[in-house]
Amino acid sequence: MELPAIEGGKPVRPSFKEYFPKLTDEEKQLVLDVLDSGRLVSSIGKYVKLFEEEFARYLGVRHAVATINGTASLHTAVASLNIGPGDEVITTPFSFIATATSILHNNAVPVFADIEKDSLNLDPATIEEKITPRTKAILVVHLAGYPAEMDEILKIAREHNLYVIEDCAQAIGSEYRGRKVGTFGDINAFSFYQTKNMTTGEGGMVTTDKEELYRYAKMFVDQGQESKYYHTILGWNYRMTELQAALGLGQLRRIGELNAAREKIAQIYMDELSSLNGDLLKLPVLKPYVKHTWHIFQVLLNLDKLRVNRDRIIEALKAENVLVQVVYPRVIYENPLFQRLTGYGKGCPWLCPFYGKQITYKKGSSPIAEQVARSVITLPTLPGMTEEDAIDTANAIKKVLTYYKR
Ligand SMILES: Cc1ncc(COP(=O)(O)O)c(C=O)c1O
């Protein structure tokens, strides 16, 4: 048996490699065009408008509103639906914190259902028991690029008269039953952070088919302005710059290629790790009617069959010089923010008189999500990676898990 580097063996790779987006000449030219023009902001430039139009066309929605990041996009979505003090939104506890904080940002209360073991997304079977007279919406996340179970979620929303918001931060181009995510919900959010499937550095987009929500979102991201210096609603400055939009346009034009590169890496992991599947780990299980875009590759460790804990496995993998992390190490409500209910001011929205209810985020309340968060490890699918990089990553996992097998 091969000795892991952390136990004194030779690492799979001689040194650690980082991966960054490789920008094309066309993308650089688009950004240069903005710099040359001196038109850096959307009110006097053409790129934000163009990017919004092309993004909407790509997805197949009527409207898109560019923003500064995914969090701002989610906040805009929540606000545009007029979800606020006293309201609850049901969501997944296994996601990035912004999924839930975007609800808090508009003074509403996140309520967590549980997730499916295979997709790691919101389990429709756990939603209805969370619905109360205060519930206004379901905020669904397509985690890692794996589309959530939209038919059932939309059915529950229709039956209970709830809005649906999609968090597509990790799922640009993902499809559910042949239709792109970001077109199902009333209003939806995307992120273009550095590591996302397409990037503008920081950046985001809101999408909707509804004219009224579009108009609200447009004002919300622009200081609540209905027309110049005429402010109708409480808004923010969430406006994307022309530089970001120019880069976004270039990235969007080759999103198919960017997603295909990730899929290729994911397929290598699937093939290379299949010998351990069902024994030392669990690989993603794909539903036949989804198109996954592999923002990240989530693997669940079978900790019962290992004689060390996950922290040790991660340390051992780092010592092999491969990039493996934990996304996410705990469910959202296990964070101090939710345990201490430290919100706005004196603790709003939880302690807001409009809410008038007591909520505690108890351990064990989303058992599958908690179990997943304790056993997940996350393999990179970054487009800068070569096939060899992916094979090295898989080999490091095979070596480390086999060594620590009970
Ligand atoms: C699922 C999810 N939601 C929301 C966000 C927030 O996006 P941003 O980082 O662009 O604010 C992210 C980004 O990491 C995310 O992964």
Summarize the structure.
The protein has 406 residues and is α/β, with parallel strands linked by helices.
Please name the defining characteristics of this protein.
406 residues, alpha/beta, Aspartate Aminotransferase, domain 1, Aspartate Aminotransferase, domain 2, 2 domains, seven-stranded mixed β-sheet, three-stranded antiparallel β-sheet, 12 helices, 15 strands, globular, binds pyridoxal-5'-phosphate
The domain tally reads: 2
| Count of helical regions | 12
Number of DSSP E strands: 15
Radius of gyration: 22 Å
CATH architecture designation of the largest domain:
3-Layer(aba) Sandwich
What is the helix fraction of residues, given as a range? Answer: 25-40%
**What is the strand arrangement across the widest sheet?**
1-9-8-5-4-2-3
Structural class: alpha/beta
Bound molecules: pyridoxal-5'-phosphate
Keywords: Aminotransferase, Pyridoxal phosphate, Transferase
Organism: Thermofilum adornatum
Protein name: DegT/DnrJ/EryC1/StrS aminotransferase
Family: Belongs to the DegT/DnrJ/EryC1 family.
Structure description:
Helix 1 runs antiparallel to helix 7, helix 3 crosses helix 4 (97-105) and helix 8 packs parallel to helix 12 (387-403). The protein has helices at 25-37, 47-59, 70-80, 97-105, 150-160, 211-220, 242-252, 255-273, 310-319, 336-340, 367-375, 387-403; strands at residues 63-67, 88-91, 109-112, 135-141, 163-167, 175-176, 179-180, 187-191, 204-208, 225-227, 230-231, 281-282, 290-291, 297-301, 376-379. The chain has 2 domains: 5-21 and 255-328 and 369-403, Aspartate Aminotransferase, domain 1 (Alpha-Beta Complex), CATH 3.90.1150.10; 25-254, Type I PLP-dependent aspartate aminotransferase-like (Major domain) (Aspartate Aminotransferase, domain 2). The strands form 4 sheets. A 7-stranded mixed beta sheet has the order 1-9-8-5-4-2-3, sandwiched between helices. It has a 3-stranded antiparallel beta sheet with strand order 7-6-13, with no helix packed on it. The protein has a 3-stranded antiparallel beta sheet with strand order 12-14-15. It is an alpha/beta fold. Helices cover 34% and strands 14% of the residues. It is globular and about 70 Å long. Strand 2 (88-91), helix 4 and strand 3 form a beta-alpha-beta unit. It binds pyridoxal-5'-phosphate. Residues 69-71, 74, 95-96, 98-99, 141, 167, 169-170, 191, 193, 204 line the site of pyridoxal-5'-phosphate (PLP). One of its GO terms (biological process) is polysaccharide biosynthetic process. One of its GO terms (molecular function) is pyridoxal phosphate binding. Pfam families: DegT_DnrJ_EryC1.
